[in-house]
Amino acid sequence: MLSPALSIGSPGKLTSAASYTIFYNLLDFPVGVLPVTTVTREDEEALRSYEGHHKDFWDRLLKKALTDGVGLPVAVQCVALPWQEEQCLRLMKEVESVTRMNR
Fold it and tell me: What GO molecular function terms would the record report (predicted)?
């Protein structure tokens, strides 16, 4: 999962939108999260015209949660199969090296 940080008060309202990521933790899969970039002014500008896929309550709530996020981290969640912690760490190292080169 790749996602920017949400504004204060928003995560509790959007738990169901990312609930599938919680299952990895509940099932004891190796999981790691690392920041790969930050929200830019260009991202914020693009968000202004965002209507979402379904143009429903959830899309509007997500847009509100992401508004005014310039400078907040955008992170990626890396997951591996159970008992494969080394693979998760390897993936995280690869993601980190690729994103560091592109900054």
Answer: amidase activity; fatty acid amide hydrolase activity
